[in-house]
Design a protein that fits this description.
By secondary structure, the chain is an all-alpha fold. It is built from six helices and two strands. The protein has a domain of about 100 residues. The chain is about 70% helix and about 0% strand. α5 packs antiparallel against α6.
C-alpha cells in the first residue's frame, strides 16, 4: 500500500510505503535552534562541500581559486562553467581598462594636433585665427559706427526739442501780444463809435467834440494839436495791420512745427 501525500507527526510524506510511515513515526520532531555537531560530523560536512566544489569545476584544475558555492549557485540559477568567476571578472576589468587607455590616447593625440599643429595644418590654423581676429575687429568698427550714429541722432533730437521749446515760448509771447492788440482794438473801436455818435448829434454845429476852455495860467498861443477823430482812425488802422501780420506769422510757425 503506497501513500502519495499525507501529514503524520508534523512531517510531510509525498511518496513511500508503510516502512516509510513507521520510520517517520519513530523519528522525533526536529528541535528548533542550532544543533551542536561533533568533530566527525563537521569533517564529514566539510568533505561533502569539497566534493561539491570539485563537481562544479567540471575538470578545471584551478578548483581552489574558484569562489563558487554549490548551494548558492544553484539556488540563484547561475550556470556552472569550467572557468572561475574571479578570473572572468578580472578579464573583463582588464579589457575595459585597455579600451579606456586607447580612448585616452586618441583624445590626447587629437588635442595635441589641435593645439600644436604641424605643416599645412598649422598654416590653416593661423589663417583661421587671422579671419576670426578680422571679424572681431570689423564687429568693433561696426559697433563704433552704430554708437556714433546713435550719438548724432541723440544730438538732433536734443536740438529739435530745444527748438520746439523755443517755438513754444515764442508762440506764447505772440499770443500775449495778440491779446493785448485785441484789447487795444476794442478800445479804439469804442472810441471811434463815440466820436461818430458825437458828430452825428444834431446839436453839434461844428461836427466835433466840445472842447473845454483852457485855464488862466496857460495863456498864449496854443500849439496845434491833432484832432481826436483822425488820430483814432490811424491808430485803429495800425492795430488792425499788426494783428494781421501776427496771425500770418503764427500760422507759418504752426505749419513748421507740424512738419
Amino acid at each position: 500500500m503506497t501513500i502519495r501525500e499525507g501529514l503524520i507527526g508534523g512531517h510531510i510524506i509525498r511518496s513511500g510505503s508503510i516502512r516509510c510511515i513507521i520510520n517517520t513515526l519513530k523519528t522525533p520532531r526536529k528541535k528548533l535552534g542550532r544543533k551542536k555537531l561533533g568533530r566527525k560530523k563537521r569533517r564529514r560536512r566539510r568533505g561533502f562541500r569539497g566534493k561539491a566544489k570539485q563537481r562544479s569545476s567540471y575538470g578545471n584544475k584551478n578548483v581552489g581559486s574558484s569562489k563558487l558555492r554549490w548551494g548558492h549557485a544553484w539556488r540563484r540559477g547561475a550556470k556552472l562553467t569550467g572557468k572561475a568567476v574571479s578570473s572572468g571578472g578580472k578579464d573583463d576589468f582588464s579589457d575595459e581598462l585597455t579600451k579606456l587607455r586607447m580612448a585616452n590616447e586618441e583624445l590626447k593625440k587629437k588635442l595635441g594636433e589641435s593645439i600644436n599643429p604641424t605643416g599645412d595644418d598649422k598654416i590653416m590654423y593661423l589663417q583661421r585665427e587671422i579671419m576670426e581676429l578680422r571679424k572681431q575687429i570689423a564687429g568693433k568698427h561696426l559697433d563704433e559706427d552704430v554708437i556714433l550714429a546713435l550719438q548724432a541722432q541723440i544730438g538732433e533730437l536734443k536740438q529739435s526739442a530745444y527748438m520746439k521749446t523755443n517755438f513754444e515760448k515764442e508762440i506764447a509771447g505772440l499770443r500775449k501780444e495778440i491779446g493785448v492788440l485785441r484789447e487795444q482794438n476794442e478800445q479804439i473801436k469804442n472810441e471811434s463809435n463815440l466820436w461818430k455818435e458825437e458828430a452825428a448829434r444834431p446839436g453839434n454845429k461844428r461836427g466835433s467834440v466840445v472842447i473845454g476852455t483852457p485855464e488862466g495860467t496857460n495863456r498864449g498861443t496854443p500849439k496845434p494839436q491833432w484832432t481826436g477823430s483822425a488820430r483814432a482812425v490811424s491808430l485803429w488802422i495800425n492795430g488792425r495791420r499788426n494783428i494781421e501780420i501776427l496771425e500770418v506769422s503764427i500760422g507759418w510757425l504752426i505749419s513748421k512745427l507740424r512738419h
